[in-house]
Amino acid sequence: MIGETAFDAEPEQLRVLVTGATSGVGEATARLFARRGAKVALLGRREEQLRRVVDDLGRSAHPFRTDVSDPGSVAAGVSAAATVLGGLDVVVNAAGVAGSAPLELLDDAAWREVLDTNLSGTFHVCRQAVPHLRAAGGAIVNVASDLADMGVAGLAHYCAAKAGVVGLTRALAVELAPAVRVNVVCPGPIDTPMLRAGLDPANPVASLREKEATVPLNRLASPEEVARAIWFLAVDGTFATGTSMALDGGTSAA
Known about the structure:
InterPro entries: KR_dom, NAD(P)-bd_dom_sf, Sc_DH/Rdtase_CS, SDR_fam
Largest sheet: 7 strands, parallel
CATH class: Alpha Beta
Shape: globular
Family: Belongs to the short-chain dehydrogenases/reductases (SDR) family.
Pfam family, one: adh_short_C2
Keywords: NAD, Oxidoreductase
Distance between the termini: 44 Å
Number of helices: 8
CATH topology: Rossmann fold
GO molecular function: oxidoreductase activity
């Protein structure tokens, strides 16, 4: 690398790993970094979707089928990605799942699925990636949610997981400084397949309008807007670490 850290280099020299890269924020982030010249490792569970994104992005993108909830799968995926890219400068933890159930009906399997993917998955990837990031003077950007600081009925597991991601980010920012910066973006409602899957199937249009009405800006974020915030925290915000960036259209201020 040029200079003391990865961020003294030109964008085309950056080596980036993105989880959850087959849809939503993860896919938008992978596309943004690739479009700006970075070499990108795409991690995801769905091989067909990984191949679709890689085929679109061309030679700068490399797929690695990985389940972030499985420590062994993460160890293999991160190691393979670092080998192919020649190291890692940026890691973006965007893999996530959601679900809704009142507490009395929230079974252990549903609880574990959300916590294992959203929180433990972030931990697994950070743990495996840190040696590579230390060598490069790199950065981690985690994706949490405005619900990390809000309570919503039926989303106890999701709120707990995203609050955990924020806490993990702050702890790692202190522990890994000055070699590695660690930040988290907390988006509000985003127009993603995961959000649309949770709409009322009987009246999805009205359900979508209800979600938009909860946002002071009266609309959902696009995945691309979140990807641009991730770029800032990863690349341009070189004095930012331990930062929790709200990108929620005003929900946290309301």
